[in-house]
Design goal:
The protein is of the alpha+beta class. The protein has twelve helices and ten strands. Helices cover about 50% and strands about 20% of the residues.
């Protein structure tokens, strides 16, 4: 079958492997991108699975926290350029959406877009802003979080936002944990929260990698067990080294403060969204021509 250059590029972006290795893997898997990623990981050719989609879309993440510090709303709003993303009108709109989500706890995106802000619905305000600014924008997603005791919130720049729920602890600890989540991007809170399918797939890949290293079968299982433990420590919040003190894990930090994380949400602008590649000069020209 014919493998397109675009498909080869997608695989190369995801794995960091060479062009020929990517094309060969796609041929072997009949053009199935996900199967090719898995094949290359098993063979050790993939440097890293960078996950689907480049983080390329513009926009920002906004957070609203209730006065009692126990509820939060986090939203991602997208636009086409960072010029608009950094503007006051866009920022005010995103914050108003977060505030409305917190106040009314909509059940889904349709309900959120029907909420009223500044005398119009969220959707109506969005359309007015598009007409005013001349650039498409979208309320992409939102999530609500409740905590038994404390919500920690942190926004890095405007592109990464985190809310964390704590039982026990204090506001300073909650913010520290939120900052850690922003920096380290854990998959979930603890080992028991890792989806069984995800863990099984990772074990399968690690087993193939160990066998490809030529290790005896008796050694393979022990190697895989060790690598699975390392994987779990890397993807779980409580297993990760704390960013402000790498000598202890987040789990140990929480234990010292008699606290536990009840949940967290991390949004990063543009996760999974592909944006047409443009160089800076072309982007400026596009803005000038659109003015």
């Amino acid at each position: 079958m014919t493998i397109s250059a675009a498909l080869v590029k997608q695989l190369r972006d995801r794995t960091g492997a060479g062009m020929m290795e990517c094309k060969k893997a796609l041929v072997e898997t009949g053009g199935d991108l996900e199967a090719a990623v898995e094949l290359m990981r098993k063979s050790g050719l993939a440097k890293a699975d960078k996950k689907a989609g480049r983080v390329a879309a513009e926009g920002l993440v906004s957070i609203a926290v209730s006065d009692d510090g126990r509820r939060a709303a986090i939203v991602e709003v997208n636009c086409e350029t960072d010029f608009v993303a950094n503007g006051d009108s866009f920022g005010d709109f995103a914050q108003a959406v977060a505030d409305a989500a917190l106040a009314h706890a909509p059940a889904n995106m349709e309900a959120l877009l029907d909420l009223e802000i500044d005398g119009a619905t969220v959707e109506g305000t969005r359309r007015e802003l598009i007409a005013k600014i001349g650039e498409n924008m979208n309320v992409r997603r939102f999530q609500l979080l409740e905590s038994e005791d404390i919500i920690g919130a942190y926004v890095h720049g405007t592109r990464i936002g985190v809310v964390v729920g704590l039982s026990g602890g204090d506001p300073e600890l909650a913010k520290d944990v939120a900052m850690h989540v922003a920096a380290s991007s854990p998959l979930c809170v603890a080992e028991e929260d890792v989806p069984a399918e995800t863990l099984a797939k990772e074990r399968e890949i690690l087993t193939e990698q160990a066998r490809n290293e030529g290790k005896p079968e008796a050694i393979v299982e022990k190697m895989v067990d060790g690598r699975v433990r390392k994987y779990l420590a890397g993807v779980t919040l409580v297993g990760q080294p704390f960013v402000k003190d790498p000598d202890i894990t987040v789990g140990k930090l929480l234990g010292q403060r008699d606290a536990r994380v009840t949940g967290f949400v991390r949004f990063e602008v543009g996760e999974g969204i592909e944006k047409k590649s443009e160089n800076f000069a072309e982007e400026v020209m596009a803005q000038v021509q659109g003015a």
